[in-house]
Amino acid sequence: MSSHYKWISLKKKTKSSHYYPSLKVSNHPLKVEVMSLKHSANKNFIQSIYKWSAAFEEADPLLKYDQINVEEDVNCTEEIHSQNNYSQAWSKRRTNILNKFTTVEKLTIVSSFLPGGEKALIRQVSNLNEKVKHRLEQLDDFDEGSVRKTMGLSQQEFITKINMLDEEIKKAWDTEQRVKAFKICIQCSKLLSDVNVMQFYPSKFIFISDILDNFGNLVYHRLKIKCTGDKKIKSPLDIDASLVTESAKETCQNWMFKMASIRELLPRLYMEMSLLKCYVFISKDEIKPVIKRLATMIRGIGNPLVAVYLRVYLCNISSKLLGKDSEEYYYTNLKEFLSEYQQIFHPMMRNKYGSQLLTPDQYLNLYEPAVNWLMYGTLNYHKDKLLLLDELLNHCDEIENNELFLSSIVTCFESQYIIEKSTIILEMIHKKSEQMVLQNQVLVTLGEHLCKVENYHKLPSEALSQTWWKIASNIRSTVGFLQVLGPWLQFACTQLSTQHTNIILRGTIRFILKNGKLTDEFSNNFHLVIKRMLKFIPDIEEIFLMDAFMPLLELVQTSVARITIAKTVLSIFFERYNSVHIEDPVVISSLMRLCCILHDSINAVTVEDEIKVCADVIIKFVHAVKFHEDFERQLNFYVECRSSFIKLDGVLIALVHAVNALACRAGCGRERWLQRACVAYCFVTVPSLHCTLARAQLYLLSGQAALLSGCIGQAEANFKALVGVIPDIPQFIQEDGQKKPTHDRLIGLLSNFLSTLLMLPDNMDSNCKVYVLSGFIKTIDKIHWNKKDPLYYNLLLKALDLLCEMTQEKYTYNLETVLSNDELYGSEEEFIECIENHATNICQELLVVLKCLGDNKETKKQYNLALELFWRVIRRGDLREASMSNLAVNLWLLSQKLHDSNNKYAKTMLAALKEDSNPASQELLNKIHTISV
Question: Environment class of residue 925 by beta-carbon count within 10 Å: exposed (0-12), middle (13-18) or buried (19+)?
Answer without folding.
Answer: middle
